[in-house]
């Protein structure tokens, strides 16, 4: 019995996967495709996370798709609004009809002889194994592990008499109104949760081991709202998008080149938001430079407003152990709590945890190198959609999707069946794929591919530069190797230079 065959198979129906579907329909209208989604709904991260206040830490003029303007007043949007935007995009383009829910991809095997992938998925409702074949495999599953968040091994955690919940597993029955709540953590999730919980809780304490850089930005983009009133929708959206791209790039470059100046700018913003005499240096002065870890955004300074009003407080200390009534800290202080929220991080997982096999040889991702941040050395007809770490996720994903379509059209035009990036430059050295010091990155970075020391193997985290490379640069660049049927393609990953 022959397997169902598709020209392109997309893995994941979140922000990236829906974008990939749109680009395929627009730029490769003759290609058949399907989207395999392990969950039972569209939205990915924005459907998974349900904790109070869930929102983006990127503005929607850059997190939104380049082909579908964001038209709401809010620039820093909350989770339900983003989810609705993604689902409306899928419905308007008929992309939702291409999604096969409850299909978790576990293995993909490439055959050079057949120039196709055989993809194996497990039905989440029945455990049944489903197999399909495709000419090109495009993973848009992000890099968060959905089945578990990260919680350290806290001493005495079983002694606590109240409820403990990780934000990734928040459910509607979590009660916090009128309760004493401790949120452990200081990252984007924690600074989102604290002001949201503080609206109803008796008091919320954000307990952190060390501070994080936090910026207060307006929830609405006044310039973008004016542009929408005076310009056509698409033109206004593009102008606002580029304004925010350039502002983010300026912030990042200033952080890299003048970190002391950027520290002063951020600190002065925090001081203005907090009461006179507040101990800013203890609670809001990180030990690292800006953008060594991702900056946290609080729209309209809501976290600081909760602190000013006395609804929330920050404690910088380490946990000695959990107790029956709360937490005992290394300083000797104790925090009483009815509910403890462990906003202690996420677990990362490359390519959704699937196995990759090329001509019978299992691919070890750390032995591959990322080509333009989206394909793997020695792996044919395969791409990954991963966004920026220093800017909006979607900016890079839109470019990746457009490039994949250019690549597919180039192959069709010249009669190629295989496209394989190969590193044949022995001078290229390998470095970590994600250049962030954040704990969630460092815990999993050895599971990811490497990046190279120079183009096209280096991730520059630079949107204008990637436009030149992915949108305008040559597809046949001498590094991407093309082959036709009957001509053997080199699919064995080449050795990577030592770090």
Structure report:
With 499 residues, this protein is α/β, with parallel strands linked by helices. The chain folds into 2 domains: 278 residues, FAD/NAD(P)-binding domain; 194 residues, FAD/NAD(P)-binding domain (3-Layer(bba) Sandwich). 28% of the residues lie in helices and 24% in strands. It has 13 helices and 27 strands. Strands 1, 2, 3, 4, 5, 6, 19, 20 and 23 form a 9-stranded mixed sheet that branches. Strand 15 and strand 16 form a beta hairpin. Helix 11 packs parallel to helix 13. The longest helix is centred in the middle third of the chain and has 25 residues. The chain starts with a strand and ends in a 16-residue tail after the last strand. The C terminus is likely disordered.
Report the C-alpha radius of gyration, rounded: 24 Å
Helicity level, as a percent range? Answer: 25-40%
User: Which outline best applies?
Assistant: globular
Overall mean pLDDT stands at 92
Number of strands: 27
Catalogue the unreliable spans.
487-499
Write down the CATH class of the largest domain: Alpha Beta
Coarse structural class: alpha/beta
First and last CA, distance: 48 Å
GO molecular function: flavin adenine dinucleotide binding; N,N-dimethylaniline monooxygenase activity; NADP binding
Main location: membrane
Subcellular location: Cell membrane
Protein name: FAD-containing monooxygenase EthA
